[in-house]
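1st attempt posting a full record on here, be nice pls
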Amino acid sequence: MAHGQSYGKQHSCLWPFLCLLCLLAGLTACTVQDDAVRPIGGDSAEQASTAPPAPAAPPPGWVRRPPPSSSWSGTWSGRGGLAGSIGNLTSSVSSIGNGGTPASDNEPAPAGAMHVTVYYATDRQYQPSSHSYGWQPNRVAPHLSYGSVLVSVPDKRAPGELPLPPWYDVLSSDDAKKYVLIKASTRLSRADFLATVKARIQAAPERRAAFLYIHGYSNSFDDAARRTAQMAVDLDIGALPVFYSWPSKGSLAGYEFDQNAAEWTQAHLQAFLADFAEHSSATDIYIIAHSMGNRPMTLALASLLEKRPDLLPLFKQVVLAAPDINADVFREQIAPRFASLKLPATLYASANDKAIRASYNFADWDRIGDIRAPVIGIPGVELVDASAVIMNFMGHDYFASNRVLLTDIATMIKTGQRAKNRGGLKGIPSQAPQYWAFP
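the predicted structure (as tokens):
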């Protein structure tokens, strides 16, 4: 919780109730098992290289789309972003050879949709039989695999909307005008991944920027790709989208497994953050972590920057969205490290987040992403109360599904302004704010 004292066990912790909430959370997150991510070459562990080769000439642009026509296209056109997401149950998936030109550079977008590419690193185990990354961890060193995903995103889609084909819509589930679809995927060695990312970032018209997304509990690899795609288009921040996918089980009953997986992935995430910071050529790196994904992110980032303070200037903004972290652990062990490093970190919390409330019921311990009176500020981290914004039933993905939140995050990233200088937020108390809130 974000407040200073525990509110106690006010009601019983019924397992069926928790399961229902988790199921609804999964539905809210649109957890869909798509067709397959096609294999491209061998596993990254067999292709690892100590240094990336010289990058090939990058394509002229990142996002392929027709001129925007919707009423919100001026601000939310996504012209500065790259993205990736999951596909539907029937769409065909093309693939290319390892180390070649990504499929997104050659394949035209269908009418009524845009093509965007998102890059990934994952310590999930690759499954040759299904041509996808499953929930099992890759226990073979160096653990990480890399690649990119080409995604089709509908043009006529309001900010925050993430339309997926329902299971019953077999006939029109490949309609690019209606749904977010995976069109192709490319597996890359570490060297090719870093070379490709470096080329894309250096080709950016404005600045050398990237944002890294770390997903939360009950998310599949495809869920993470889908969310990265949506944020890349809606934030429109001109930064290369990359997601890190840890081996969440992606099921309503997988909470305990996911807790162990989030702990296991920390060392791999730390190594990836160091590698990306050193070799991607990005001078502006923005991190957005959601829910349980904040557990490995906060510890990995703090540990990395304490050992490598030379990398600190690269990390411009860190967003902790609805963090599912023990509140006392965060206040006593994590926030002080962030404060010492002077990391520009922003934590979004809500009193209407039913998934975070279910996490409390499961663990019987306050969560820092749950905010209720009395609210106490967090030294070293800007706390933003998002309880007033309109949310869906579970209220857990508000950071990416609500236009107000998207606007605030985009403004923070584009301008570097802290909460006191961003419009739309009020300080509480007004004279000497301990935290901030949406009116």
